Amino acid sequence: MIHNAERVDDSLPPQTWRHWLEARGRPFLLFARDQTRCEADAHDVLQEALVDAWQRHGDDGTPPDALVFATIRRRAIDLSRRIDRRARREADAAECPWLSLCAPEAPSFTEAESLDPHLIRAVQSLPAIYREVVVLKVWSGLTFQQIGEALAIPLNTAASRYRYALEHLRDALTPVRAEAGESGS
Prior knowledge:
Elements: H1 2-5, H2 14-35, H3 39-57, H4 65-94, H5 97-102, H6 117-124, H7 128-139, H8 144-151, H9 155-184
């Protein structure tokens, strides 16, 4: 960390930054540990806060301690919020029946009465490149442009994969629909 710090501001003598960080680094890290959930997060928050405080302070020497502590606190709050939002999204996604369609082997939802097991098997049988486009389009509601950006593929490729997936699903489900029609007559 000290070696990279010398490159932050070439106009200051390297020793200024080094002495400042050696003198104040430990209290900053202790504060970051108190503000975060784990050691790795504390180091990440501290590093981001030091760079941010240094950039905001400008070329007038070392940033004031209060600025660094405030920046550590803000960065820790932001990190905590990101972690909490991600946990909520993952919990919500775990409850979504469409996720079972993406898994190579569907979890316990496959017995869910709300989903047709034939549809689940048909989606699971799609090649992964088609299955991911179907899930992003149907479950996530993304446009083909957004799907292309998410998967780093051209918009037309996303649309083609979706069309091929629908054809595959129609072919896979036609015998099932025929059986249902025969048994219903």
